[in-house]
Amino acid sequence: MTNAADLPAWAALPTALLLLLGAGLALTGSLGLLRLGSFYDRIHAPTLGTTMGISCVLLASMLFFSVLQTRLVLHELLIAVLMAATTPVTLMLLARAALYRDRSEGCDEVPPPPPPLPSPPDLPGGSPQTQVNAKVIERT
Amino acid sequence: MSTELLSWSILLAQILLTLAMACAAYRLLRGPRAQDRVLGLDTLYVNATMLLLTFGIRTGSTLYFEAALIIALLGFVATAALAKFLMRGEVIE
Question: For chain A, what are the domain ranges?
Fold first, then answer.
């Protein structure tokens, strides 16, 4: 603790609370990852830490350095934006990969793949796409 | 008083985050399937980012912020690449 002695009490208290809240949420999420039963249950648990947990820690960091340096320190927003943008992408990619693997192994616990879409009824002169193609061919 | 409170809170937060990292590492090592290991690695990255930010608050230096940013970035790339590998069997097609 080098510089924290300069911090006034009105800033130290919210910083400590936000830090504890963020760390507690991260621990809750990781405990869920450890304890839950199946993979599709487990993939929900760490999102506690990746959304609210890291937001609280980043807010604590922003508050701490802004008060300590008596200027607005906002570069923690980079991590916040990065986390908010990338967490849904990665977890949906992972869930789809797991679903694909379970389906290709014939696992019973996952829903079956959706049935293929019914083919459009045959219109006179073919489907709309072939009509468009025929118009294009006529024009050329 | 407030300084001691902040100091003890930072210490407690570090302990909690280390426990969270231990849970994620257990899932990474003992995950029954490959997707559990990838999920454990992703959680480990996020918890490491938070632990580095806490270190930054503890030491009062902004030097740890860059390391936390790099870890968050690499975590995204690693998880996306590993999910693609699990789905398709190769990363770059």
Answer: 4-112
